[in-house]
Structures are given as structure tokens and as C-alpha cells.
Design goal:
291 residues, mainly beta, 2 domains, 19-stranded parallel sheet, ten-stranded parallel sheet
Length: 291
Amino acid sequence: MNTYTSLKRFGITSLFAVVLFAAFNSPLHAQGFPTVHCDSQGGSNLQIKIDAGGDGDKIFLTGVCDDGPYFIFGKHIELIGFASTGATLSSLGSGDVLIVRGATVVLRNLTIDADGSGTGILIEGSSADINSVVVQDASGAGMTIDGSSYAIVGDSEFNNNDVGIVVIGSSNAFIHQSTIQGNSSRGVVVVGASSASISNSTLINNLVGVLVTKMSTLGLGGNLIENNTETGVQVADQYGFLEAAVNTIQGNGTDVVCEARGIFESGVAQISNTQTTALSGCTLLGLGTVF
């Protein structure tokens, strides 16, 4: 399934889908943009390049930039690790690694290493196009998408954080062909009148695979949700809404649980648990094949 078809399947269409589709398929290389060699120049040079950059500028990175946090405010900037080596962004002290506010950001071929503190990537009132990025070891969220932001995430990993990804504050996210594993609390949280689609992704070995709650919606398609300690998919109170089809949800403490006014719609193609246990407390609308 291509990116646009996946977006359309979960209701992210029109201009929003076109913008995300174009961003997801944009070229990664251009001539004449600066390169930051973090090992030799120091991470502070990266912030200088960001501050000096104009709308649409690309900054190519190598090495380990370790004196974050780094700030992108009010402009369109692309941070791209070299294809052969990638690059790592980290922070010298406690706190977030990359903060994006009122901006448009493209991230490619990077590792965001929070080193046990803060949030890896904080996106507020912005748009983000993220591909081939690893976000790890945050004491908070690997990535928070907040303040009516939207993000498209592809071919990326969110590992060993407290929460892998938080979508909050009327934000929208499309997560495709990514791995979310080993997060000590939840893999993905969709909350606060937000929406997210997760497709062709793997959510394993978290406490809870994915949670949707508080007037938010979640679409799941073609995912493997497995070996999460407590719950694979949790649809919580205050009108969390889930539409799921053609997923494999198996081997979790409870595969799918709905609480209070949560609604489970459509059907999940494969559930290895019993139907009663797998769908604990759920109100079923238009149920498809469940086995």
C-alpha cells in the first residue's frame, strides 16, 4: 500500500494528504547547502547554522552533535544526516534535544539520543516530515506532537523511552512502516482531541502498545502489535475512538481493552487471544472477522 492510499484509508485526505504525500516523497539531497561536521566543529555550530538558515534551507550533518537542545522557530529547515554515516543529535544536560515551534521541519537519517532525560523531539504548532530517524532513551516522550501540529513519520524507530510518541492538543499524525518498542510506559498515546493513523508498523515489548483517549481517534491497519506487557490496544474513557482492520494483535497481556465510553469499530483480522479476552469491555460497531 503506498503512502497516499494508506492516508486515504484512514480519512486523511484532501489538501492535508497531498501535502503529506509530497513531503514524504520529497528528494533528500540538494547542492549548495551547508554541512556541519559535529565531531570537529562542535554542536554549537549546528545551532548557528539553524539560526542563519532561510526558509527551505537544508543542513547536512555528520558525527555527534551533543550540546543541545537545538531550536527551530518560525522557519522551514531540513536536517539531513549523510546517507553513508548518519548523524546523532543529543543534549549535554537534562532536557529536550530538538524543539520545533511555529515551524516546518524535515528530519532524515538521524539518531536523536536523549541520553535518559527530557523529550527527544518536541513539535509545537508546527509541521514535521520525519523519515529514517531513531529516537531513543528519553525519560519523557521520544516525540511529542502538540498544539495543532501535524507530522508524517516513516521508516523510523522509537525505542527505550518512557512513551514512544505522544499526539496531543488537536494534532494529527501519520505513522507508517515504523518500529515502536521497549518503551517503559506506552508505545503511542493519542489524546486531547487529536487523531493518528498507524499503518504497517510494529509495536512490541512496551507496557501498553497504543492508547487512544479524550475525544481522540486512531486508525490501525496492517500492524503487528505483540508482546506488550499489559495491553496491546487500549481505548480509554472520554470518547476514545478506534478503527482497526487487518492487524495482528497477539501475545499481549490483554490484546484489546475498552474502558468506560471507549468504542471499538470495524474489525481486527487476527487476534490470537480468545474473543472475550481480546475485546474486553468493548462496544462493537460493524464488527468484521475476529479470531
